[in-house]
């Protein structure tokens, strides 16, 4: 069970989830490691494969040249590969061609032929030429006993017949690299066969497994002429089979390639070590780079983590950050500004709501205690109950207003919108408020035109009613209220103008905030409302896609203006699912 659990923990998805997916730094390091590893692996494979192919092509070219020369001449003195990679040419090393090769070295040939040759070994010593590969049939009969440099007499002996044709020699008397450990890497061997499989000739030191036939070639006729070769690798050797269609025979030539394979293995090992070292350096560099790049994010995280209700004024230092992180820090600082402002509004809202609720409750308790302190007359009880009723009504209005604002904030203040004409809506609001204006000895005038908008008639009527109530409450004695309804190409405009005392610029900036109340001295009754009416008006107007504003000047009255978009059928979004909440209507009607 423990083993299975450990294997499950070590699985690639679990490692990814524990390391890379939870850390930007870890994810960056993992992806760079994978990418760099893939690139290094690709180049290592390409390098190794290219060298391997070039090595094989060089060996095959060498063996094919040797094999074709043998097939063309029937013996091994012609075009045998030399140590410098060249070929002997069509003539042998003594300048003889054709059957002239059977003439013993040093004897004159027929008239007109080449003069007697000197011993090639003697000539090479005098000319200072480097040693070349020789074949058994090219060694002079009078050659002295050959030695292997520091190894004493050649173990194979000194006679010509001790070295079969096709086996190359150096001047030291042995095959190339004979004094190295292991098989002589550049020792060639061959085997000639008839098409029937009968062996015609073979090397003296031919490896036993070289007698194994090649897979049957499918090349016959013209195809065999264009490509008459096959090749294979067997036990550290490379062998090439060449088929001669004209003579119905073939030859297999080969050589040891252990040195080349060792070189390739060393190349592969060096490449792997370099790739591993590069990968380690890349991982370390990526980790350090990621740490350096992400360190500003750590600073930002620490700053954000310190923010509490009492430290909302802290901000991220933008100056030392890079351009991209500066944008992020500025966005976060702006978010913190809004958060602080909202939190302060919430604190002020809660404080004001508590204060407003405490006042009517205190009135109810005071009237009740006063009435119960001793026996009262019916008239006194009636007055006490009337005061309690007024306080309860005021408290109900406040609670319903708070409920309306809470629903607006949460997006649950739903409207029953449809195309409506604002003319009857404004006229109805004016008629409902006219008795209150007459009681306050105010003149009320209107200039109205028809304008169709897409909205809720009940809520828009309450907005107009609230604005008229404010105009009556804060107007001058025997003042005037003027209401207009106009429209242009895009919008409808409702304006309510009063001749009151106006407001200062500071008061105007807070006018639509919740629980903001103007100076009671400007009120005709000397009292103020809850300070929620205009805040609710703004919420309703904005839900209709419009805006509300005020222009005022101290001592010269105020003008409230509501702008709503005109109704267009293609842009209308009719909502008939939810009707207006009657409790909200009551709260809006009584809000000031």
From TrEMBL:
Catalytic activity reported: ATP + protein L-histidine = ADP + protein N-phospho-L-histidine
The Histidine kinase domain, residue ranges: 352-568
Entries under InterPro entries matching the protein: HAMP_dom, HATPase_C_sf, HATPase_dom, His_kinase_dom, HisK_dim/P_dom, HisK_dim/P_sf, Sig_transdc_His_kin-like_C, TCS_sensor_his_kinase
Domain HAMP: 291-344
Residues that span the membrane, as ranges: 28-48, 267-290
CDD domains to which the protein is assigned, alphabetical: HATPase, HisKA
Pro residues bias spans: 107-118
PANTHER family hit by this protein: SENSOR HISTIDINE KINASE TRCS, SENSOR HISTIDINE KINASE YKOH
Name of the protein described by the UniProt record: histidine kinase
Alphabetized Pfam families for the sequence: HAMP, HATPase_c, HisKA
EC class: transferase
EC number: 2.7.13.3
GO cellular component: plasma membrane
Residues spanning the signal sequence: none
Region (Disordered): 77-184
GO MF, one example: phosphorelay sensor kinase activity
Major localization class: membrane
Record's subcellular location: Membrane
Naturally occurring in which organism (per UniProt): Planctopirus limnophila (strain ATCC 43296 / DSM 3776 / IFAM 1008 / Mu 290)
Basic and acidic residues biased stretches: 87-105
The entry's keywords: ATP-binding, Kinase, Membrane, Nucleotide-binding, Phosphoprotein, Transferase, Transmembrane, Transmembrane helix, Two-component regulatory system
Superkingdom assignment: Bacteria
């Amino acid at each position: 069970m423990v083993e299975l659990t450990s294997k499950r923990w070590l699985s690639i998805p679990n490692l990814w989830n524990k390391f890379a997916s939870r850390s930007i730094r870890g994810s960056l390091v993992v992806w760079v490691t994978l990418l760099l590893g893939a690139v290094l692996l690709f180049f290592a494979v390409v390098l190794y494969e290219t060298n391997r192919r070039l090595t094989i092509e060089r060996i095959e070219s060498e063996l094919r040249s040797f094999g074709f020369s043998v097939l063309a001449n029937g013996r091994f003195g012609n075009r045998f590969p030399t140590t410098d990679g060249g070929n002997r040419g069509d003539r042998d090393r003594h300048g003889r061609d054709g059957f002239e090769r059977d003439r013993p070295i040093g004897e004159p040939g027929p008239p007109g032929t080449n003069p007697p040759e000197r011993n090639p070994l003697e000539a090479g010593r005098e000319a200072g030429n480097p040693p070349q590969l020789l074949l058994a049939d090219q060694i002079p009969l009078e050659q002295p006993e050959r030695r292997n440099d520091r190894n004493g007499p050649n173990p194979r002996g000194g006679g010509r017949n001790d070295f079969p044709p096709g086996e190359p020699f150096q001047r030291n008397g042995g095959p190339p690299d004979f004094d190295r450990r292991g098989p002589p890497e550049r020792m060639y061997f061959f085997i000639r066969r008839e098409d029937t499989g009968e062996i015609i000739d073979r090397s003296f030191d031919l490896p036993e497994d070289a007698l194994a036939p090649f897979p049957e070639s499918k090349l016959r006729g013209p195809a065999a002429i264009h490509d008459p070769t096959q090749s294979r690798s067997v036990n550290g050797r490379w062998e090439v089979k060449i088929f001669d269609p004209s003579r119905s025979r073939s030859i297999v030539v080969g050589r040891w390639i252990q040195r080349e394979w060792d070189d390739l293995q060393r190349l592969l090992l060096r490449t792997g070590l370099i790739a591993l070292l590069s990968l380690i350096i890349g991982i370390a560099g990526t980790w350090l780079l990621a740490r350096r790049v992400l360190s500003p994010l750590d600073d930002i995280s620490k700053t954000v983590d310190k923010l509490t209700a009492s430290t909302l004024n802290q901000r991220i230092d933008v100056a030392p950050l890079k351009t991209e992180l500066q944008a992020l820090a500025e966005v976060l600082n702006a978010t913190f500004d809004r958060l602080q402002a909202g939190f302060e509004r919430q604190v002020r809202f809660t404080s004001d709501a508590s204060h407003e609720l405490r006042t009517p409750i205190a009135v109810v308790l005071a009237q009740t205690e006063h009435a119960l302190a001793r026996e009262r007359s019916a008239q006194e009880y009636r007055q006490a109950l009337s005061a309690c009723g007024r306080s309860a009504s005021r408290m109900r209005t406040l609670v319903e207003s708070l409920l309306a604002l809470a629903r607006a904030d949460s997006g649950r203040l739903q409207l029953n919108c449809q195309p409506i004409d604002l003319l009857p809506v404004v006229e109805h609001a004016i008629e409902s408020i006219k008795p209150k204006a007459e009681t306050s000895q105010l003149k009320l005038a209107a200039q109205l035109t028809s304008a169709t908008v897409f909205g809720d008639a009940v809520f828009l009527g309450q907005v107009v009613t609230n604005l008229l109530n404010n105009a009556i409450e804060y107007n001058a004695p025997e003042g005037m209220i003027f209401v207009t309804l106009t429209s242009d190409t895009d919008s409808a405009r409702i304006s309510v103008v009063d001749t009151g005392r106006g407001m200062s610029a500071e008061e105007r900036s807070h006018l639509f905030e919740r629980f903001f109340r103007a100076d009671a001295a400007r009120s005709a009754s000397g009292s103020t409302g809850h300070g929620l009416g205009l805040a609710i008006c703004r919420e309703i107007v904005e839900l209709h896609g419009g805006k509300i504003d005020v222009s005022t000047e101290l001592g010269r009255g105020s003008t409230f203006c509501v702008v709503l978009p005109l109704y267009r059928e293609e842009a209308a979004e009719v909502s008939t699912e939810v009707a207006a909440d009657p409790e909200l209507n009551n709260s809006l009607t009584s809000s000031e």
